[in-house]
């Protein structure tokens, strides 16, 4: 700066990534704010780097808050932003939050990673959270983002005593998703 050179967004992003790699999140956030003060608009990469680092460090609340703050700061989350957050929340066993963000992602028309979806479905099934499992399944079906593995898993999770009722609902979801 003293020599009249002013860093560009890419330079700030590299610094933010470096601070995140050292788990110096306060400094990374400080540089994000500094960008705006210097008239450089943080881009989606600026935020995604921090969101990923927060998730990897188990700072899920910070990741969600930053994600939600993006539009207020003039930066719209993209498909990568959603994928990073869903993946991070899922791996941190923040299943309800992951399902909520996944639903928002699908509503916006963004496709989740199939591997993340299948892992999330398996974990919800394993945890016994069938209500959330079927909410996620329904959301995926509405967005036409469900694959054969997820359908097979869904059918295999049905408790025998209520099989006929749930199978009818699943069949309706399946046929509706392929009719569109």
Automatic annotation (TrEMBL):
Gene3D superfamilies, A to Z: Tetratricopeptide repeat domain
Pfam hit, one: PPR_2
Transmembrane segments: none
Top-rank taxon, per record: Eukaryota
Residue spans of the PPR repeats: 8-42, 43-77, 78-112
Keywords per UniProt: Repeat
Similarity field: Belongs to the PPR family. P subfamily.
Name of this protein: Pentatricopeptide repeat-containing protein
Annotated organism of origin: Opuntia streptacantha
């Amino acid at each position: 700066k003293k020599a009249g050179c002013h860093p560009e967004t890419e330079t700030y992003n590299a610094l933010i990534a470096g601070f995140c790699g050292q788990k110096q999140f306060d400094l990374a956030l400080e540089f994000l704010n500094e960008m705006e003060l210097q008239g450089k608009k943080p881009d989606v990469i600026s935020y995604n780097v921090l969101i990923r680092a927060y998730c990897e460090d188990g700072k899920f609340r910070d990741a969600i808050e930053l994600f939600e703050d993006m539009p207020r700061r003039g930066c719209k989350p993209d498909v990568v932003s959603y994928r990073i957050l869903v993946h991070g929340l899922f791996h941190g066993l923040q299943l309800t939050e992951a399902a909520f963000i996944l639903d928002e992602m699908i509503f916006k028309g963004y496709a989740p990673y199939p591997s993340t979806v299948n892992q999330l479905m398996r974990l919800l099934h394993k945890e016994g959270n069938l209500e959330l499992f079927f909410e996620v399944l329904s959301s995926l079906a509405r967005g036409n983002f469900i694959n054969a593995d997820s359908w097979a898993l869904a059918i295999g999770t049905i408790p025998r005593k209520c099989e006929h009722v749930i199978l009818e609902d699943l069949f309706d979801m399946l046929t509706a998703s392929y009719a569109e």
